[in-house]
Write a structure and sequence with these properties.
The chain is 20% helix and 35% strand. A hairpin with a 5-residue loop joins strand 16 and strand 17.
Length: 302
């Protein structure tokens, strides 16, 4: 697992989100029932295949789900399960890494979520409307039954990004769940993290500062002050957000094994120039960012 960015690797898209799971079948059921994901595939990997996919051996189960055009992979290490998600983590810890589900109707989305058991809220008083300086979105953070943090995100109708306007226009059926807008990760040094992700080909697409009381309720934190830095690849959706909480307690970089439930990986697709530098057997590269978040660079859609 390399730390830092090889200079010959550039990415064009955030291809999918890879969650480690202790009970992948059960977690997949939650995503499908509560959040309207659809099943794409179920695969069992041998020891050799698992070592190619991750840096952990033993058999593994991979369940691929989709919401709109975005995909989530649930990886369960059958023979070598890792540590469960820490129960005492907060929204400002470096461990915190979520992805945001865009919904067309927050009330309907909350009703679907509330009808299921096992999840726990992060936001202290239900969905929160953030100020106009933060986009005026309505948001609600929660944890799935294994502890992974997630967010429901509803854009104001007049300020909905063009991409999601088109998705809503093309949507069929009455599901409020449209797709995944971004993944947000907590970082300790925004400048350092921007430099790292720029070395992979991402660019800063937006910056904002959130310190409104609504942010405190959203994160269930006392007076948070967070810099939000959006970074996009050539394919802008989904994108990456860096969350730098200025008043969070200092802690060291993450030390997660690939089979730990908190070890979420962002899977990026490499550009054609990077693909040409790969041998047939080197179908992906694994990296760790400066704070310990795990990345996968795939020469093609993996």
């Amino acid at each position: 697992m390399a730390v830092g960015s090889p200079c010959d690797v550039r990415v064009t898209a955030l291809h999918c989100f890879r969650l480690c799971s202790g009970r992948a079948q059960s977690l997949a059921g939650f995503f499908q029932t509560a959040l309207d994901f659809r099943h794409v595939s179920t695969e069992i990997f041998s020891d050799a295949q698992t070592r190619t996919l991750t840096d952990i051996g033993g058999r593994a189960l991979r369940i691929t789900l989709a919401l709109g055009a975005q995909r989530v992979e649930l990886i369960q290490f059958i023979d070598r399960p890792g540590q469960p998600y820490p129960v005492d983590s907060s929204a400002s810890d470096l461990l915190f890494q979520h992805f945001a589900l865009v919904v067309s109707d927050m009330t309907a989305a909350m009703q679907s979520l509330s009808a299921q058991l096992g999840w726990t809220p992060i936001s202290s008083e239900g969905p929160q409307r953030l100020p106009a300086s933060s986009g005026g979105v309505s948001a609600f953070k929660f944890r799935d039954p294994e502890g992974h943090p997630l967010e429901l995100l509803a854009f104001p109708e007049k300020d909905m990004p063009a991409h999601w306007k088109q998705v809503l226009q093309d949507a069929h059926g009455d599901s409020p769940f449209l797709g995944i807008d971004h993944s947000a990760i907590c970082v300790s040094d925004g400048t350092r993290s921007v430099s790292f992700y720029e070395s992979l080909g991402l660019i800063v697409s937006n910056r904002s500062v959130n310190s409104d009381p609504a942010q405190a309720k959203l994160d269930d934190l006392d007076r948070p002050f967070v810099d939000v830095i959006a970074m996009s690849a050539d394919q802008a959706t989904p994108h990456l957000e860096l969350l730098c909480y200025r008043n969070r307690d200092n802690n060291d970089s993450l030390d997660l094994q690939a089979n730990d439930v908190a070890a979420t990986s962002l899977v990026f697709e490499a550009d054609d120039r990077s693909k040409q530098n790969e041998t047939p057997n080197m179908w992906q590269r694994s990296l760790i960012d400066p704070d310990g978040h795990r990345l996968v660079i795939a020469p093609s859609a993996a």
